[in-house]
Design goal:
Layout lengths: L2 E5 L2 E4 L4 E8 L6 E8 L6 E6 L6 E3 L7 E6 L4 E6 L8 E9 L7 E2 L3 E6 L1
């Protein structure tokens, strides 16, 4: 059974940095492409960053390009989201998701971790 668990959320000030971590268990981590999504109440969930199985291919939402970095350590079954120059509009619940490489939908989701950026 695949399990995805996020950590690292919290309260920061505008301009600060924060790193989220996500650990996948139950299957071989390198079989999965990974992604970070975020959602605020009343808004649709949006994709923040994606990374392929090897880490060699990444993609970002325009709103976070140049500020956020997604990376992974397959030896630790962990994907990270390094967030820098944070803004109040980055406030959201952040979710980690996994899909089998080549798949279309993200099949496995964590419970999310709250990130709040004060101005």
């Amino acid at each position: 059974q695949v399990r995805v668990v996020e950590s690292g959320g919290g309260l920061v000030q505008a301009g600060d940095s924060l790193r989220l971590s996500c650990v996948l268990s139950g299957r071989t981590f390198s079989d999965f492409a990974m992604a970070w999504f975020r959602q605020t109440p009343g808004k649709a969930r949006e994709s923040v960053a994606t990374i392929n199985w090897s880490g060699g291919n990444t993609d970002y939402a325009d709103s976070v390009k140049g500020r956020f970095t997604i990376s992974r350590e397959n030896s630790k079954s962990t994907v990270y989201l390094q967030m820098a120059s944070m803004k109040p509009e980055d406030t959201a619940r952040y979710y980690c998701a996994a899909k089998y490489s080549g798949g279309i939908e993200y099949d496995f989701w964590g419970q999310g971790t709250q990130v709040t950026v004060s101005s």
